[in-house]
Amino acid sequence: MRELVFALEYRPGCNRVADALAEHPDARVRSLSLHATADRLWRVDHATGAPAALDDLEAAFRDADYYADCLASDDCGATQTTRVLDRDGDTLVLYSDWERTPRCASVPHIAREHLGEGVLFETRHEGRHCTWRLIHPG
């Protein structure tokens, strides 16, 4: 097994989740589960922060023009659905799924294409910074 860790920094206006986190420095988002096939992606994310931060994060996941993991600079046409699984005080749990399009450039799909099946993903978002940790058979 091999591990690959890298980070992405998002400029303002490029990623709604990063924008929401930058506005609420005490808020955080981490993946609980993330799975990708050749044409779909499913994930569960756990967010913490003040109620206003959670409102902004929920809106960012639900209403963004394109999915938060996508590296495309424009709408790639993917169909995305996000549901709230749980919300209690300073915690929000979201379930998201989406169908990939030919123009999609998501981190999980790029990793799957280059590293093969069976890649495990972990993400941690703080401000405009997102750290990815991938475990793969190598």
Helicity level, as a percent range? 10-25%
The averaged pLDDT comes out at 90
Q: How does the overall form come out from the CA principal axes?
A: globular
* Overall strand count: 7
- CA gyration radius, whole angstroms: 14 Å
Regions with little confidence, pLDDT below 50 for 5+ residues = none
Strand order across the largest sheet: 1-7-6-2-3-5-4
- The tally of helices reads 3
Task: State the end-to-end distance.
Answer: 6 Å
Major sheet summary line: 7 strands, antiparallel
How many structural units, i.e. domains? 1
Structural class: alpha+beta
**β-strand amount:** 35-45%
**SSE string, helices as H and strands as E:** EHEEHEEHEE
Characterize the structure shown.
By secondary structure, this protein is of the alpha+beta class. Helix content is 22%, strand content 43%. The longest helix has 13 residues, at 51-63. The protein is globular and about 40 Å long.
